[in-house]
Amino acid sequence: MSDDAKPEKVRKGDARRQRGNRTGFTTGACSAAAARAATLGLMTGAVPASVVCRLPNGKDVSFAVIEGRVEGEGQARVAHAAVVKDAGDDPDATHGAHLTADVRQLPHKIGEIALKGGAGVGVVTKEGLGLPVGGPAINPVPQRNIRENVRAVAEEILASDGLEVTLSVPGGEEMAKKTLNARLGILSGISILGTTGIVRPYSTAAFRASVVQAVDIAARQGQTAVVFTTGGRTEKFAMRQLPELDGSCFVQMGDFVKAAFTTAVKRKLSHVHVGAMVGKLTKMCQGLAVTHAWKAEVDRDILAEAAREVGAPPDLVEEIRAAETARFAAERLAGLGLSEWFHRQLAKRAIRSLKGSYPGPYRLTVLVCDFEGRFICRVDEDEAL
């Protein structure tokens, strides 16, 4: 077929999805603001309607305060305040959460600021998080930031006594079910997180950081293998294929291939598994560091060549080259009984691309499933290299 005769490429549409880029605030920043507001309430007898909080990045930000109240008398008083988390344009499970602080005086504990976890704040049950087992899931930077904000307004009390700050998140246990906390060994609630105080939209720092953290935790817990998947469906599929592996080995890398693999190499993990479907698998063949559709389209030439190599008719090969999605190729080849061989070809290409981009002594295995999460093939690097 001549170039002039090639079928016109089918497109979903030229308009790119518009992503929001409004930043938000971390659970740590909101907790620090609530703690500062409650401390002011303990000092003055009235919790303010808003409070200026110093973020870990050094910026001062004003937060609205709700549920402000002071109860009790004398040194038995408890001040209560909450800040509603605004995650900006980040699709965060904790968006809208009420980060709540209750502050009370600790007689004769000069200068001490004790942090406790209340209802809805997770409890650490495994090593590897950099937090004491049995303690609240309040990360080190937020801990420091909360204490700094409390100390900034409580000099008078701290000169003779201490303060106890109890953080809680109503509904936090349900929110945590939408996170990876249970797999990381954090139970009964969410984590208080954030290194800058600012939440960036999903496409950048937040998800990438969670991938790196998950690989780090697996390595610290002594795991030697890691399983990277592109989402929930491929993760469930991979778990069925690798039941012998601990839950901490399974990491949803999403679109962040480079972050996942460079961390695995750095941590000297000996076996890397990848669970994927045809679209992301093709993008791994392309050598993309980030496989999201906003970054790059699927290379249909790769799909077409793989189809040709497994014996697809020439007309179908050209249809695949022109089609918009990788799914088109997968479904048409499945109809011809060529699904396994087609996906096996893509898996081999993906292994060569990944090992070339992220060299190291680790062994690489690719597990491929269909759109219903059903097994198609498993390819080890020995077959591809």
Task: Write up what this structure looks like.
The chain is of the alpha/beta class. The protein has two domains: about 25-200, CbiD-like, CATH 3.30.2110.10; about 205-385, no CATH class. The protein has 14 helices and 18 strands. Strands 4-5-6-10-7 form a five-stranded mixed sheet. The radius of gyration is 26 Å and the shape is elongated. Residues about 1-20 have low confidence and may be disordered.
Record keyword descriptors for this entry.
alpha/beta, CbiD-like, 2 domains, five-stranded mixed β-sheet, 18 strands, disordered N terminus
Question: Which structural category fits the helices and strands?
Answer: alpha/beta
Task: Give the integer mean of the pLDDT values.
Answer: 89
Q: Please give the domain count.
A: 2
The span between the termini is: 33 Å
Describe the sheet with the most strands. 5 strands, mixed
Helix content: 25-40%
Quick one: how many beta strands?
18
Radius of gyration based on Cα positions: 26 Å
- What is the overall silhouette? elongated
Strand arrangement, major sheet? 4-5-6-10-7
Topology:
Elements: E1 24-25, H1 27-44, E2 50-54, E3 60-64, E4 66-71, E5 78-84, E6 98-106, E7 113-117, E8 120-121, E9 123-124, H2 140-153, H3 155-158, E10 162-168, H4 172-176, H5 181-184, E11 186-187, E12 189-190, E13 198-199, H6 205-220, E14 225-229, H7 232-241, E15 250-252, H8 257-266, E16 271-276, H9 278-285, H10 300-309, H11 314-322, H12 326-335, H13 339-357, E17 363-369, E18 375-380, H14 381-384
Parallel strand pairs: 7-10, 8-12, 14-15, 14-16, 16-17
Antiparallel strand pairs: 1-13, 2-3, 4-5, 5-6, 6-10, 9-11, 17-18
